[in-house]
Each structure stands twice: as structure tokens, then as C-alpha cells.
Amino acid sequence: MINTVSKIIKQLSSNPKKLFLIDSIGALTTASLLFAVLRNLNEYFGMPEKILTYLSIIAACFFIYSTICFFVIKTNWIIFIKGISIANLLYCISTISLVVFYHHQLTTLGMAYFLGEIAIICGLVYVELNVATQINKSRIDNKTND
């Protein structure tokens, strides 16, 4: 498992544009699920509709950011990768806080959805931060060799 994650980090470090594509697809999926599915099937999940709307708007903003980075950014990836990874981490902290606050309303399915989402996003944050570190290390190694 660790070897696989290392290979993914190495591959994404050589093509960080893919990282933004992955992040944008994930953010769009999250926004769509929260807005279209969880809100309409709220009795099966339990999170208030207003909260789901706010979370979906945040995810939509992350989708826009990552999509713009994918199409526009050509160099200096590190700052943009760190930006989305910090935003993703803050989203996870907010979601954890909401799960704790609304735990009495959440169904088992709702709890499973949000804990799964948090786990996936935290995994993505781990990869993003390691990719940024790897890119920076490569840049430093290249300057040293010049």
C-alpha cells in the first residue's frame, strides 16, 4: 500500500496538472452528491438541507479553483497545490465539526457518508502535500546540480 502511494506521488510530482484534474473531479462529485442526492434523500442521511447546500457550494468553489489551475497554471505548482490542500483540510475539519454537532440527527448512512468523504479527502491532502514537497525537493536538487 505504501509503495503504491509512493508511486502515485512520484507520478503526480512529474505531472502536477493531473493532481488538479483529480481534485476537480472529486470536488464536482462531492458538490453533486451533496446538492442533488443527499439533499433530496435527506431522511436517509440526516444532515440539515441548509448545511448540505453550504457544503456543496464550498465543494463547487474547490471545483472551480482546481479546474482553473488545471487549465491555466503552467509553472510554480507548489503554492497552488498547497492552497487546495489547505482548503481541503479546512473542509474536513468543518465537516468533522458538523458531524459532531449534528450526530444526534445523522443516520448510520449519513455518518458513513461523511466519515468516508473525510477519509478520502484526507488521503488526497496527504498526496497533495507530498507532491508539493517532492516538486520542491526536485527543484532544489536541480538548482544544486546547476
Shape: elongated
Give the helix/strand class.
mainly alpha
Largest sheet entry: none
Ends: how far apart?
A: 35 Å
N-to-C order of helices and strands = HHHHHH
What can you see in these coordinates?
With 146 residues, the protein is mostly helical. The chain has one domain (16-141). 86% of the residues lie in helices and 0% in strands. It has six helices and no strands. The chain has helices at residues 2-14, 17-38, 42-45, 49-72, 77-101, 108-145. α2 runs antiparallel to α4 (49-72) and α5 (77-101) runs antiparallel to α6. It is elongated and about 60 Å long. The N and C termini lie far apart (35 Å). The relative contact order is 0.15.
Summarize the structure.
The protein has 146 residues and is mostly helical. 86% of the residues lie in helices and 0% in strands.
Ordered list of secondary-structure elements with their pairings:
Layout: H1 2-14, H2 17-38, H3 42-45, H4 49-72, H5 77-101, H6 108-145
Helix pairs in contact: 1-6, 2-4, 4-5, 5-6
Defining traits:
single chain; 146 residues; mainly alpha; 6 helices; 86% helix
